[in-house]
Design brief:
The protein is an all-beta fold. The two termini are about 20 Å apart. It is built from no helices and 15 strands. Strand 2 and strand 3 form a beta hairpin. It has one domain: Jelly Rolls (Sandwich), CATH 2.60.120. The strands form 5 sheets. It has a 5-stranded mixed sheet with strand order 7-6-14-9-10, with no helix packed on it.
Length: about 150
C-alpha cells in the first residue's frame, strides 16, 4: 500500500520579549524539521499515579511513536495551579523535571543521559518513555510529537 500523505516541514519559533527600564531584550529563534509525515497530538488528563504519556519504540503503536523517526516533542501543563513531574526514561536512567502550571517542555532530540552521584558524562541513549505525575491533583496536559 502506497501512502497518500505529503510530508511537510515543521517550524518551531521561540520568541523572548522583555523590556526592563525602557531597554528591550530578547530574540527570536527558528528551528526547522524537514520532511515530516506523522503527528500525534492530544490533550489528556494525568493523575498523581505517574502514568506514561508516550512511549518511543521500534514501531508505531497505540501511545507509541517510532524512536528512529523522532523529530520533535512538546508537553504543556495546562493546569493553572499545580505542577507535574516529568520522568524521562531511556531504558536504564531516569531524568526528572518539574513542569510548573502553564509551563512548556520541549525536546528537539530524543537522547539523554542521567547518572546518579556523578558529574561525568556517560553516554547518550534514546528516550523510551515519558511519564507525567501530577503533584497535588490531576492536571490536563497537551502533547505533540512529530516524526518522519
Amino acid at each position: 500500500m502506497a501512502t497518500t500523505i505529503d510530508t511537510a516541514d515543521l517550524t518551531v519559533t521561540i520568541t523572548e520579549s522583555y523590556t526592563l527600564n525602557g531597554v528591550s531584550y530578547g530574540n527570536t529563534t527558528n528551528k526547522r524539521f524537514s520532511s515530516n509525515g506523522q503527528v500525534l497530538q492530544r490533550i489528556m488528563n494525568v493523575s498523581t499515579s505517574d502514568p506514561a504519556i508516550i512511549n518511543f519504540g521500534a514501531a508505531d503503536a497505540a501511545g507509541q511513536v517510532t524512536v528512529g523517526d523522532y523529530k520533535y516533542f512538546r508537553i504543556t501543563n495546562l493546569d493553572d495551579t499545580n505542577f507535574i513531574t516529568l520522568t524521562l526514561f531511556n531504558g536504564t536512567d531516569s531524568f526528572f523535571y518539574k513542569l510548573l502550571a502553564g509551563d512548556v517542555f520541549l525536546l528537539m532530540s530524543n537522547e539523554m543521559d542521567a547518572i546518579a552521584s556523578s558529574t561525568t558524562f556517560g553516554a547518550f541513549a534514546d528516550i523510551t518513555q515519558i511519564k507525567a505525575d501530577a503533584d497535588t491533583a490531576a492536571c490536563d496536559i497537551e502533547i505533540i510529537a512529530v516524526t518522519t
